[in-house]
From TrEMBL:
Catalytic activity, EC: 1.1.1.85
Gene3D superfamilies: Isopropylmalate Dehydrogenase
Summary of subunit composition and partner proteins: Homodimer.
Record-level Gene Ontology MF annotations: 3-isopropylmalate dehydrogenase activity
Protein name: 3-isopropylmalate dehydrogenase
């Protein structure tokens, strides 16, 4: 049975990086005979320009029916004045909600080959291996919001943060399960000294943890966590947190790996899963052919492992990426004297050459 991969390039560098990952998947498919088929759909500003909506029904329906979704990124200054409900970012939020993708897994590792690319000291980042488990379809990104209302003689806007016990339970369960296969430690990150949602989060996390005596749970405030990631990242194994905090902490943690362009993610939930790099559409470099495709290529590896049960193929891609980096190939975001500077196409060719 062919496996149908729905590819949604989106905006900005989205097409450049998903093209690269599809080339890698095609080569892997030839080698392992997985029988992949690819179908391409619009989303984001690109879809808004064509159809007047950021997430056409066709795209959402195709994603729901797919074996897995590979997503690039959406957004860009061009659509800054579009009304909020039609902004490009609604496409990725709508896909996450529509597919029930409540968990976003963002692994961050510092490879020895890239130790010098972090702005942090090598002795601080060496050995970093963190899995950020971010709740993805709740919290402030999905609560009621008001763009503008009169209040006390002025104008205000607001966004509502809410979490229910089942929403917290299922994400903490997933983090606990992940920790069992890793170093057995979970840090639950919140702001329970201030926020009601965080107090519910913390209590619920502690309750779930009672079922996992072999996992060590600790709680940390998000402001401290942001600092600990910069001064002692190796203290973390699994971090579980809400939608907003997870979004911010994972961009920060990307610095530990060398570049945001390297960071993959898997969004999983009720049925079809979606795979995307953690970065956005990078309008500042879009169309130049210089984006780092490795975050998307590594997301394709996660797709093979989690959605298609093709672990050997996933390992193969990850080894090819490691070898390419240890051979010294670098896109501009990681370039320094002495390494071999390549553009998106050059990096993709180098990875393909390492899949024998
Ligand atoms: N999942 C998604 O579709 C996401 C979309 N966005 C959207 O993307 C747009 C741009 O947002 P920004 O805040 O600029 O974040 P961004 O992640 O797109 O870019 C931040 C910085 O990282 C660089 N960068 C990102 N990916 C790179 C890659 N693969 N290779 C080399 N350099 C890379 C960019 O050039 C830029 O300097 C916005 O419209 C935002 O809403 C942002 C995050 C996620
Ligand atoms: C564009 C946002 C909705 C998402 C984001 O920044 C992310 O998922 O990392
Ligand atoms: Mg983000």
């Amino acid at each position: 049975m062919p496996k149908n991969i729905v590819v949604i390039p989106g905006d900005g560098i989205g097409k450049e990086i998903t093209d690269a990952a599809v080339d890698v998947l095609k080569k892997i498919d030839k080698k392992y005979g997985i029988d992949l088929t690819f179908s391409f759909y619009d989303a984001g500003g690109t879809a808004y320009d064509k159809f007047g909506v950021p997430l056409p029904d066709d795209t959402l329906n195709a994603a729901k029916a797919a074996d897995a979704v590979l997503f690039g990124a959406v957004g860009g200054d061009k659509w800054d004045n579009v009304e909020p409900q039609l902004r490009p970012e609604r496409a990725i939020l709508g896909l996450r909600k529509g597919l029930g993708l409540y968990a976003n897994l963002r692994p961050v590792q510092t490879m020895d080959e890239l130790i010098d690319y972090s702005p942090l000291r090598p002795d601080i980042v060496r050995g970093t291996d963190v899995l950020i488990v971010r709740e993805l379809i709740g919290g402030i990104y999905f609560g009621d919001k008001c763009e503008r209302e009169e209040y006390n003689g002025t104008i205000r806007a607001w966004d509502l943060e809410n979490y229910s016990i089942p929403e917290v339970e299922r994400i903490v369960e997933l983090a606990m399960q992940a920790a069992l296969k890793r170093k057995g430690s979970v840090t639950s990150v919140d702001k329970s000294n201030v926020l009601a949602t965080s107090r519910l989060w913390r209590k619920t996390a502690a309750k779930v943890a009672e079922k996992y005596p072999e996992v060590k749970l600790d709680h940390m405030y998000v402001d401290n966590c942001a600092m600990q990631l910069a001064i002692k990242p190796t203290r973390f194994d699994v971090i579980v947190t809400g939608n907003l905090f997870g979004d911010i902490l994972s961009d920060e943690a990307a610095v530990l790996g060398g570049s945001i362009g390297l960071m993959p993610s898997a969004s999983i939930g009720e049925k079809t899963s979606l795979y995307e790099p953690i970065h956005g559409s990078a309008p500042d470099i879009a169309g130049k052919g210089i984006a780092n495709p490795l975050g998307t290529i590594l997301s394709a590896a996660l797709l093979l492992r989690y959605s298609l049960d093709a672990s050997a193929a996933a390992d193969d891609i990850e080894s090819a990426v490691k070898k390419t980096l240890s051979d010294g190939y670098r896109t501009a975001d990681l370039f320094s004297a002495g390494s071999k500077k390549v553009d998106t196409a050059g990096m993709t060719e180098a990875v393909l050459a390492n899949i024998k």
